[in-house]
């Protein structure tokens, strides 16, 4: 492709679409078709022989069969995400959970073991502990903030170490932003469990503020519903990594049948054109809002990576692994659920809703909402208290956001 000499940032704007293939349209059309015509029976035969993804990336456009397997809008979106992630290939799905479950099932079978960080996104936690186990896949958990020694002991001493097929990490973890050191896990994996694939849920910082592949991960996973989609108007998911691993993931995706549709993929490729602008403004706003919250007498504690003090034991890791504080804040008000609810009910500009990474500011109460299915003890152990509020900061005018939070905090 003639774009190769330009940076990933530029290639993610218009790459992956060739105007001459579509009446010189600057934007890709939506290829709303379920199937593709073969010019000859011999061509159909050849396409089927290559259907498993053996076709070189640049030739995929010319060898399309059926939209569940692949389609032009997926090719455009996947090219752009691969650029942003520094990956060889990417795959889009109809939800983040589809990306996560399909990737786990691509590498783990009955009798295999997954080791995961904690806490995990609620849906992932439920998939591994309640659904993957029904298929005979076992799991073991690293404690929140586990040290290198603790992770080493968990991997070295596990009776099923030779069956360890996946190390699943989520960093920063939702909602309290605890970090996991990907490089540290990579070194232990190479020494103790070389057959395990390291997958990192990069939803909270990616694709721009954290590049797990550069730190030793094998696969990035996303809820593309969040920053990648960025407008709270689609549910989607993604995986990215080497061509070899993505081939396995795409084979599983074709059979489970959860490939992102042409329209979802089209929205995603449109969204990736503005992802840099959106994420940078969101992070700038978040930094200012976090500073305001940290200084407010009605706020008991503020959790924002961009305000982590140098004395914090995770500071060096944060500086090495992330290049921004991101747009996610959590904070505790004085009091409990009643005070938190008064604040939430008084907001005027920010919306009371789960999800994150969108243009509008979203505020929620993890204890009774996104984390309510966790045991009480687990919630408290992970810092999810009744007074904790989670904020995904949008791109509104920051003075307006502060004004809104200020009037709502007065009610607590
Ligand atoms: C939202 C989310 C998911 C699940 O994604 P869906 O698109 O809702 O299926 C997974 N991981 C994290 C960290 C999330 O925030």
UniProtKB/TrEMBL annotation:
Q: Which cofactor does it need?
A: pyridoxal 5'-phosphate
Q: Which organism is it from?
A: Roseivirga thermotolerans
Q: Name one Pfam family in it.
A: Cys_Met_Meta_PP
What InterPro entries has UniProt attached to this entry? Cys/Met-Metab_PyrdxlP-dep_enz (IPR000277), Cys_met_metab_PP (IPR054542), PyrdxlP-dep_Trfase (IPR015424), PyrdxlP-dep_Trfase_major (IPR015421), PyrdxlP-dep_Trfase_small (IPR015422)
State the CDD domains in the record. Answer: CGS_like
The record's listing under PANTHER family reads:
METHIONINE GAMMA-LYASE (PTHR11808:SF86), TRANS-SULFURATION ENZYME FAMILY MEMBER (PTHR11808)
Enumerate the SUPFAM superfamilies for this protein: PLP-dependent transferases
Q: What is this protein called?
A: Methionine gamma-lyase
* Lineage, highest ranks first: Bacteria, Pseudomonadati, Bacteroidota, Cytophagia, Cytophagales
């Amino acid at each position: 492709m003639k774009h190769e000499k330009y940076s990933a940032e530029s290639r993610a704007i218009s790459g992956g679409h060739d105007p001459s293939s579509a009446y010189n349209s600057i934007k890709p059309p939506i290829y709303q078709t379920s199937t593709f015509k073969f010019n000859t029976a011999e061509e159909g035969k050849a396409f089927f022989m290559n259907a498993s993804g053996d076709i070189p990336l640049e030739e995929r456009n010319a060898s399309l069969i059926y939209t569940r397997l692949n389609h032009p809008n997926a090719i455009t979106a996947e090219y752009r995400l691969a650029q942003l992630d520094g990956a060889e290939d990417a795959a889009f799905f109809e939800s983040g959970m589809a990306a996560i479950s399909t990737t786990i099932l691509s590498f783990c079978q009955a009798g295999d073991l997954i080791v995961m960080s904690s806490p995990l996104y609620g849906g992932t936690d439920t998939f591994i502990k309640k659904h993957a186990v029904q298929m005979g896949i076992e799991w073991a958990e690293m404690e929140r903030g586990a040290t290198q020694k603790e992770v080493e002991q968990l991997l070295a001493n596990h009776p099923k170490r030779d069956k360890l097929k996946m190390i699943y990490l989520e960093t920063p973890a939702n909602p309290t932003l605890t970090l996991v050191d990907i490089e540290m896990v990579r070194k232990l994996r190479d020494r103790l469990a070389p057959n395990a694939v390291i997958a990192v849920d990069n939803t909270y910082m990616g694709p721009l503020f954290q590049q797990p592949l550069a730190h030793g991960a094998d696969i990035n996973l996303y809820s593309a519903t969040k920053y990648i989609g960025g407008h709270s108007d689609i549910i989607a998911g993604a995986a990215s990594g080497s061509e070899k691993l993505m081939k396995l993931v795409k084979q599983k995706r074709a059979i489970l049948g959860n490939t992102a549709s042409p329209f979802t993929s089209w929205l995603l490729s449109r969204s990736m054109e503005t992802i840099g602008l959106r994420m940078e403004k969101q992070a700038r706003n978040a930094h200012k809002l976090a500073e305001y919250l940290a200084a407010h007498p009605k706020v008991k504690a503020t959790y924002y990576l961009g305000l982590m003090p140098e004395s914090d034991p995770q500071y060096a890791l944060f500086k090495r692994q992330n290049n921004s504080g991101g747009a996610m804040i959590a904070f505790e008000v004085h009091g409990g659920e009643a005070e938190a609810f008064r604040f939430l009910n008084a907001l005027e500009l920010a919306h009371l809703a789960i999800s994150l990474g969108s243009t509008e500011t979203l505020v929620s109460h993890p204890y009774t909402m996104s984390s309510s299915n966790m045991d009480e003890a687990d919630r408290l152990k992970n810092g999810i208290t009744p007074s904790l509020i989670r904020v995904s900061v949008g791109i509104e005018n920051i003075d307006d956001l502060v004004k809104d939070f200020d009037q709502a905090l007065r009610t607590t």
